[in-house]
Amino acid sequence: MSDPLFLSLAKSIRDIALVAGEEILSVYESDFSVRNKKDLSPVTAADEAAERVIIEGLSKLEPSFPVLAEESFSRGAIPNVGNEPFWAVDPLDGTKEFIEGVPNFVVSIALVNENEPILGVLYNPVTEEIFSAAKDKGAYLNGEPIFCSKKEKLNQMIILNSRSETNRGLWRSYANIFRELKPVGSVAYKLGLTAAGKG
Fold first, then answer.
1. HEC secondary structure over the chain
2. Alpha carbons 107 and 131: distance in angstroms, whole number
3. For residue 76, what pLDDT is reported?
4. Chain segment 19-49, per-residue pLDDT in tens
5. Per-residue pLDDT tens over the stretch 104-129
């Protein structure tokens, strides 16, 4: 994939994530309902609205790339993806946090080629953090280069751990080992914060 096409795709994905974030915020600030999917995980109108605009945007951007998206997948809409490029989408990673009003959720969009992620964007519409990364081209937070922090001693480290595990007390025994245990809901958001060296 040529650099100009790559850069164009990166900007377009960021724009699509921003539109999806607007859909999420419009529901976040309303009196929304929650239902459970077959696997008993929760879903809201925000998940579904964000996925609709993402699929629409990606389909216009690159019609030949299939979209593997969480909510469509849960309804049995499973595209045929192999070694060719495809989009992997979680329109709202951190739905439980979204429901609880905790701003630990992100839009997650990645381009996968030959079973390897080559381009990705995470967007937290509440904090307005937009993480982006591309294979061999670095990672960025709101356009600025980011890097993982480097600590050698456990007592210097901040651990971004699971909120649900923390609520169940599963991290209690580690409290005196690390500098700080910081519960964060969305797995994708944790990865973005870790990439940025943010605790």
1. CCHHHHHHHHHHHHHHHHHHHHHHHHHHCCCCCEEECCCCCEEEHHHHHHHHHHHHHHHHHCCCCCEEEHHHHHCCCCCCCCCCCEEEEEEEECHHHHHHCCCCCEEEEEEEECCEEEEEEEEECCCCEEEEEECCCEEEECCEECCCCCCCCHHHCEEEEEHHHHHCCCCHHHCCCCCEEEEECCHHHHHHHHHCCCC
2. 10
3. 59
4. 999 999 999 999 899 998 888 888 999 999 9
5. 999 999 999 988 999 999 999 999 99
Distance (Å, rounded) from C-alpha 181 to C-alpha 199? 9
Amino acid making up residue 160: L
Cα distance between residue 115 and residue 195, in whole Å? 21
Prediction pTM value: 0.89
Assess whether pLDDT exceeds 80 at residue 100: yes
